[in-house]
Amino acid sequence: MSLQAVDDKIEANRAAALRISGDARARMRATKEDPRLSDLAKREEIARITETTKAQLDDLAAREQQIVDDQIRVLQRQIYGTAGSSPEAVITFRDAQERADRITEQRPALAAMQRALLNQDEGMAQALLGRAFDQGWADVTGAYAAEYPARASYIADLQGLTNFKNNIGAQMMGAFNYWIRSQGGAA
């Protein structure tokens, strides 16, 4: 699935949330204006509408996160593949991940990536790529993408989704779509 398809799914999800919250606000307004209901009945109905709507919006918010997480996993599989089926391959990859995790700065990570690429040490290169994604080291991911151009679009998409997921402002704006404010009491 392309990033555009992910964006389309998120936008459709958010549009559904806006429809649900708009409908809930209209029902709350109608409840507040209903002369047949007592103040207590109005408060209870508004609370029920709020509770029901909040549950629906929480489900949609979780669905948005699931859309992003699922696509991140798909891209990671396309980039990394699997560590291998043999126990030796798994252990070798874990060792490479541990070595990559000990690197705390981009410059040494880039040097290690260049060595891994030069030596065709795919496991170490992938471990360093994972560390680079975690740390936001664009030069390191760029070096890997330059060596493996067939994976470059996957890397760019993964970087975009990772940035989106880690962007507090974007997450707050997204969360706003899944929020409902109670219309208060009856009056």
Major beta sheet summary: none
Low-pLDDT parts are none
Strand content: under 5%
Compute the gyration radius: what is it?
Answer: 24 Å
Question: What is the element string, with H for helices and E for strands?
Answer: HHHHHHHH
Helix/strand/pairing class, anyone? mainly alpha
Q: Based on the structure, what is the oligomeric state of the protein chains? A: single chain
Average per-residue pLDDT, rounded, comes to 91
Helix content: over 70%
- How many DSSP E strands? 0
Helix run count: 8
Question: How many structural domains are formed by the residues?
Answer: 1
Shape: elongated
How far apart, in Å, are the first and last alpha carbons?
49 Å
Structural features, described:
The chain is mostly helical. It has one domain (3-176). 80% of the residues lie in helices and 0% in strands. It contains eight helices and no strands. Helix 1 runs antiparallel to helix 2 (39-80) and helix 4 (106-118) packs antiparallel against helix 5. The chain is elongated, with a radius of gyration of 24 Å. The model has no long low-confidence stretch (mean pLDDT 91).
Concise account of the structure shown:
By secondary structure, this protein is mostly helical.
From the structure above, extract its key features:
8 helices; elongated; 187 residues
List the helices and strands and how they pair.
Layout lengths: L2 H31 L5 H42 L6 H15 L4 H13 L3 H14 L2 H10 L4 H15 L1 H9 L11
Helix pairs in contact: 1-2, 2-7, 3-5, 4-5, 4-6, 5-6
